[in-house]
Amino acid sequence: RVQLVESGGGSVQAGGSLRLSCTASTPTTEHILMAWFRQAPGKERKVVAAIWPDGGYTAYDDAVKGRFTISQDNAKNSVYLQMESLKFEDTAMYYCAASTYGGNWRPSQTYNYWGQGTQVTVSS
C-alpha cells in the first residue's frame, strides 16, 4: 500500500510563504499523477495543483495560479507545493494525493492514495 506523508504546514500572516512537502513510500514516477488538494471547514475538497511525475507537466487551479508552484524531486520520492503571497482564503487542510491510473486531474475520484493532511492557517 502506498503511503503519503505531508509536512510543512503552519500558521503565517497574509502575504507570507510556506512550502509543503509530500513524501511517498514508493517512487513518484510509479504514479501517473500527483496533486495537492485543500479543504476548508464546511467546504468540499478541491484540487489546488497537479503534476505528472513522468515529464513534470503541471496544472493549477485559477485560485492559486501565479502564487503556488508544484514541483517534484523523484530522487526523494517527494512532491512539493511552494505557496507565496498567501491569503486568508488559503486557510485549509492540505492533502497530497496520488493516482495510479491517471485521468482528469481535477476530481478527487481520480486519486486512489491520500495523505493525512497538513494544516495551513493564514491570518489577515
What would your notes on this structure say?
By secondary structure, this protein is mainly β. The protein contains no helices and eleven strands. The protein has strands at 4-7, 10-13, 18-24, 33-39, 46-52, 57-60, 68-73, 78-83, 92-99, 113-114, 118-123. The strands form two sheets. Strands 2, 4, 5, 6, 9, 10 and 11 form a seven-stranded mixed beta sheet that branches. The chain is globular, with a radius of gyration of 13 Å. The model has no long low-confidence stretch (mean pLDDT 96).
Write the layout of secondary structure elements.
Elements: E1 4-7, E2 10-13, E3 18-24, E4 33-39, E5 46-52, E6 57-60, E7 68-73, E8 78-83, E9 92-99, E10 113-114, E11 118-123
Parallel strand pairs: 2-11
Antiparallel strand pairs: 1-3, 3-8, 4-5, 4-9, 5-6, 7-8, 9-10, 9-11
Strand segment count = 11
Biggest sheet layout: 7 strands, mixed
**General shape:** globular
User: Rg, please?
Assistant: 13 Å
Q: Into which percent range does the helicity of residues fall?
A: under 10%
Mean pLDDT: 96
Order of helices and strands: EEEEEEEEEEE
- Provide the structure class: mainly beta
Please tally the helical runs, counting DSSP H or I stretches of 4 or more residues: 0
**What is the CA-CA span between the terminal residues?**
40 Å
Strand content: over 45%
Low-confidence stretches: none
Keywords:
mainly beta, single chain, four-stranded antiparallel beta sheet, 124 residues, seven-stranded mixed beta sheet, 0% helix
Could you give a quick summary of the protein structure above?
The chain is mostly beta strands.
